Amino acid sequence: MNEFAQLGNAFLAVCHPASLMFMFAGVIIGIIFGAIPGLSASMAVALMLPLTFSMSAVLGMNVLVAVYIGGISGGLISAILLNMPGTASSIATCFDGHPMAMNGQASKALSYGIVFSFVGSVFSFIFLTFFAPKLADIALKFTPAENFGICFFALTMVAILASGNLLRGLLSGLLGLMFTQVGMSPIDGTVRFTFGNPNMMAGFNTLTTLIGIFAISEILITAETKFSGDAKIIQVEPPKGLGLTWAEFKYQIPNAFRSALIGLGIGILPGIGGSTSGMLSYVTAKNSSKYPEKFGHGCPDGVVATETANNATIGGALIPLLVLGIPGDGVTAMMLGGFLIHGLSAGPLLFVKNADVVYGIFAACMVCITIMLLVETWGIKYFVRLLKIPKHILMPCILVLCCVGAYATNNRVFDVQSTILFGVIGYLYHKLGLQTTPFVLCFLVGGMMETYLRRGIMTYKSFGAFFQRPIFDVFFFVAIAIVIWSVIKSNRDRKQGKVI
Fold it and tell me: Euclidean distance between the first and final Cα of the chain, in Å?
């Protein structure tokens, strides 16, 4: 009962008018940063860190949580309306969210994303509040071998994403892996494929790559369409309430529950992040669906899977941060800085010495996702108006924001140049009929997979020792089975004339 009493006191403190005002502002700031291509939740939290210095520890951490939640959820707005993910976590939301918008269902797509963002967050925060220490114990059992197994499993998802033509999908994915090899290699720091350019020693930044592949390429494609006189006039239906019927919500519950488990599990593991959980959830939903052919053409199941998972990752990522002092992703790394600013030490002793801060964060999470739901639901009717802005006005503004966001990542012109490079690659992919999804998945996972592989070999002295880890065996052999099944299916489709 002591835990419930502390949680109740935390809710009373969080619901103080001044605290609510700051968290309300934090959620809105996070949504804005998340919705603008080129900016990110990490950037929003970093900018808010100095502002929390004069606040109490409880209020300061609550504000950072509010910005975090708003930033991750806000990415769905630009992903659905503009086909440009505002955050890396919303990459897979583009795959079906934007086609829905193009089919005149922008409000419906936003409603699915917002409601199930809320559902995923509630699911993960309940686990965070009541099971954090136990879940952290599970995370401690994951060595580099298990993490490599997860990354290898994620990488084999390319075989499913490349539906229709396995060879084209693998070609797309291999190019993504090539770009992860640029820069200093993990562990030993050997310089690779920099061609004497010192700017390339750090490799290509994830944010600039995603901005280029999705935002810049979309701008080039739109500019070409506008020039050719084939621009499509998008009809936008007026939003009605939450935009979902009870039957539609109930139908998606199994999909949402499965995706929330994936997001929570990936979030607990340090260093993997919401972009991977969103991709895995999307692929799992497609593979489990009775109508996988609808994915990529405006299927609500894809939006639900991605947004439920990436928001469930928030609660998962907070577990290793609070319990072990290990940040689960880039944003929680920034939040670790917030703990240091306020003289707190994240880890097991935090629950003993600063229980008010911990339970304050738990309470703030629940309050902030409620604020997020209300703000974004109210804003749907305004968000959809983006589709009515003439493209020749909207796209140059987005281009400027993308370049500003790319430069602000590391204050380097090279990142802006990288954004343009990947924009051209994305455009060429479109012209050649290649999917960008395998490229992005391999780029996101490839670097992590190499790091965990080399750490594991250093730890166990040989790759064969990986197979003595049961968790690794499960991920590895399931991944091999998926590849074999995909090859067989591809050959069968080729014989039936289904491959284009």
Answer: 62
- HSE at residue 297, side-chain half, CA atoms within 13 A, is 4
Cα–Cα distance measured from residue 68 to residue 361, given in angstroms and rounded to the nearest whole number: 12
Mean pLDDT of the chain: 79
Has residue 500 been placed in a domain? no
Query: Rounded distance, CA 449 to CA 212, Å?
Result: 23
Question: CA Rg, the chain, in Å?
Answer: 22
In this prediction, residue 396 has a pLDDT band, given cuts at 50, 70 and 90, of confident
Residue 499 has pLDDT above 50, yes or no: no
- What does the block give as tokens for 240? 């009605």
Indicate the Cα dihedral angle 430, 436, 439, 442, nearest 10°. 180
Give the C-alpha separation, 264 to 309, whole Å: 7
pLDDT(479) > 50: yes
Distance separating alpha carbons of residues 167 and 145, to the nearest angstrom: 29
Do 375 and 188 meet the contact criterion of CB atoms below 8 Å apart? Answer: no
Largest CA distance in the chain: 68
Q: For the residues of 1-30, what is the DSSP string, one character each?
A: -HHHHHHHHHHHHHTSHHHHHHHHHHHHHH
Mean pLDDT, residues 405-431: 84
Phi-psi region of 143 (alpha: psi -120 to 50; beta: other; left: phi over 0): beta
Beta carbons of 357 and 344 less than 8 angstroms apart: yes
At 470, give phi and psi (nearest 5°).
-60, -40
Q: Which residue has the tokens 């298990």?
A: 146
Side chain identity at 142, as an amino acid letter?
Answer: F
Is residue 159 over pLDDT 70?
Answer: no
**Residue 483 pLDDT more than 60?**
yes
Which candidate, 387, 390, 431, 449, places its Cα nearest to that of 180?
Answer: 449
Residue ranges making up the domain that contains 481: 2-495
Q: According to the model, what pLDDT value does residue 150 have?
A: 79
Q: Cα–Cα distance between 268 and 372 in angstroms, integer?
A: 23
pTM of the full structure: 0.74
The answer to the question of residue 168 being in a domain is: yes
212 located within any domain:
yes
d(CA 198, CA 357): 43
* C-alpha span between 461 and 451 (Å, rounded): 15
**Structural domain contains residue 165:** yes
Structure tokens at 173: 């994915």
Q: How many domains does the chain have?
A: 1
